[in-house]
Amino acid sequence: MKKNIAYYTMILVTAACLHTGCSDFLEEDTRGKVFDNVLTSQNGLEAALIGAYRGWANCWTYGFTNGWATEMTLGGDDLTCPPGTGNTQEYDRYDVKNTNSSSPTVFWGCYKAIQGANNILENYEKCQGDADVIKCIVGEAYFIRAFSYYWLVRCHGEIPLMLTTAFDVADLDRTPASVKEIYTLIEDDLNNAISRLNDKRRNDEIGRPNKGSAIALLAEVYLSEAGWPLKETDKYAMAAAKAKEVIDNRATYGFDSENSYDILYENDDTKSGINKEDIFTIPCNLAAGNSLNAMYGYWAYPGEIGGWDVVFAEMTFYNEFPEGPRKTATFATTFTKEDGTVLNWKELKNPRPYYKKLMKSEKAPNYYNHASQIPMRMLRYSQTALTYAEAKARTPEGPDALAYKCLNDIRTRAGLDTYSELSNSDFIDKCVQERAWELCGERVRWFDMVRLEIVEEVVAKKDPADNQPMHAITEKDYTFPIPIHDELLNSQLNSER
Fold first, then answer.
1. Which of 219, 360, 367, 413 has a CA-to-CA distance to 161 between 20 and 30 Å?
2. pTM of the full predicted structure?
C-alpha cells in the first residue's frame, strides 16, 4: 500500500464553504459560522454540525447522494454497467486508475465531513448552552467522523488520519495511518458517540443518528475487522453482541423490519420520511438544490425512458436470485415510455433488468426526473439482523435460535422457505448469500466480497456478456488508489497504479 498519501488542500476547506443543507435541520446557511470566534455557543456548534453533514450530501461533487459512490461498489456481482463507459467501467473490470473521476466523490466528501466533525470536537468544551444538547451534538460529530473513516479505510486502505483542524504545509506529505490504527479510531469514536447520543433521533429529524445507529454501525465495523485485511476473528463475537443489542432494543431505538417490500421500497418522491427499517439515512430535499438525491433518478433508469443507463443488474446475479416478492420489488423488467409504449428488459439497448428498488415510484409526480428527495439509505435493520446471524454463526458457539430467526424472518418476507438444523458452515453460507440478495444495490455486496476474500470466486461466475476483469484479480484490487489530485501534492508518493 502507499507509504505516503497527500491530504488534498480542498479537503481542508471548512464547512463555511458548504452551501445550504439537506433536510430541515440541514437547510441553514452555514457560511461564515464555523470559525473559532463563533464556536463558543451552542448555535455555533449547530452550524458547524450542519457543515459536517453537508460533506456527505453534495450530489454532483462529493458525498453519497449520487451514483458515483455506487459506482465504486461495481466490483460486487450485484451491479454492472454498459461496456465502454470509461471511469464507471474501471470499477466493474477491477482496473481503477488514480485518474478515475468518480474516486474523489467519497474521498473528498468524507474528509470534508471529518473536517467539520473535528471542528466541533476541538471546540465544544468552551461552548455555552444546553449541556444535554451539546452532549448530543458531540455524539453526532463522533458518529460522522467514524462513519467517514469507515468508508475511507474500506475504499482506500491506509490513509492519513486527520484529528485536528490545524494545518501545516508538512501535512501534504503526511504518512498514512495503518488500517489497524484507523479501525481503532473508528471504534473509539463510535463508543464516544454511543455514550453521548440519545435513544431517539434528536428533534426526531431525518438524517440524525441515535444511540442505536451508532451501535449498529459498530457491529458492522467489528464484522469488517474480523475479515480481510485484519482478520481479527475474535471480533465476530463482538459484532454479534452489538447487533443483538440493537435487535433487543429495537423498540427503544425506533427500528424494526417492515412487513413488505412494497413499503420498504415505496420510493415515493412526495414523501420525505423514512420507514422503521432505516437505521441511518442521509436526507435530501429538492428545494435545497445541490442536496438532492441523484441516485434515485436517471442514474438507475434505462435510456428508453429517459435514463442514463449507468447501472443495472449482472445477469448471473439476476438469474440466481430466487423468485418471489423480493425479486419483484428489487428488479424492474418492464418499462413504460412517456408515450405509453411498454418495453420488456430484453428489448432495451442494454438488455438487463434494472433496479426497481433504486427507482422512484411510478405513482409519484416527477417520475421522469434526474433526481429525487428520497433519503439515501446507508444502514437498515435487516442488515443488522443478518450481521447478527452471520457473526454469531462464526463464533465457537455457532448459530443460536435468534440467529435462525433473523435469517428466517427475512426469508419469510421474501417468500422463501425457512432453514433449520443446518451445519455451521452451511448456515454461514446461507447468511452470506442472503445478505447479497437482501442488500443488493445498496453498496454492501462489494465490501462483503472483499472482507470474505471471495472476489475471485464470485467473479469467475460472471456472465460472458457482462464486463470481464482486465487482469487476474489480486488483493491489490480490493482497495482503490488515492485520487490523483491528492497524489500530485505529495512529492514522495509514487503511484502504484
1. 219
2. 0.91
- Judge contact between 285 and 22, C-beta under 8 A: yes
Q: Residue 320, Cβ neighbours under 10 Å: how many?
A: 13
Q: What is the DSSP letter of 355?
A: E
The answer to the question of residue 323 being in a domain is yes
pLDDT value at 2 more than 70: no
d(Cα 241, Cα 114) in Å, to the nearest integer?
28
Distance CA 117, CA 148 (A): 10
Phi and psi angles of residue 495, each rounded to the nearest 5 degrees, phi first: -60, 140
Phi, psi (deg, nearest 5) at residue 336: -105, 120
Summarize the confidence of residues 39-53 as an average pLDDT. Answer: 92
| Among the ranges given (28-32, 250-254, 425-429), the one the predictor scored with the smallest mean pLDDT | 28-32
Question: Is-contact 326 415, C-beta < 8 A?
Answer: yes
Which set of grid coordinates corresponds to residue 248?
433487543
Q: First and final CA of the chain: distance in angstroms?
A: 11
347 within domain boundaries: yes
Look at the chain and report how many structural domains it folds into.
1
pLDDT value at residue 106: 93
Q: Which residue has the cell 426497481?
A: 356
- Enclosing domain of residue 349: 286-376
Closest CA to 242 of 209, 180, 192, 194: 194
Q: What percent of the chain has pLDDT over 70?
A: 85
pLDDT of residue 12: 35
Contacts of 399 (CB under 8 A, 6+ apart): 389, 392, 393, 422, 424, 427
* Residue 256 parent element (H or E): none
Check whether 202 has a pLDDT greater than 70. Answer: yes
Give dist(CA 170, CA 179) in Å, integer. 22
Note the Cα 197 to chain centre separation in Å: 21
Whether 359 is covered by a domain: the verdict is yes
Inside any domain, residue 338: yes
Percent of the chain that is helix, strand, coil (3-state, to 5): 45, 5, 45
At residue 330, what is the residue type? Answer: T
- Better-predicted residue by pLDDT, 7 or 111: 111
Query: What does the mean pLDDT of the chain come to?
Result: 87
- The most confident of the ranges 165-169, 217-221, 354-358 is 217-221
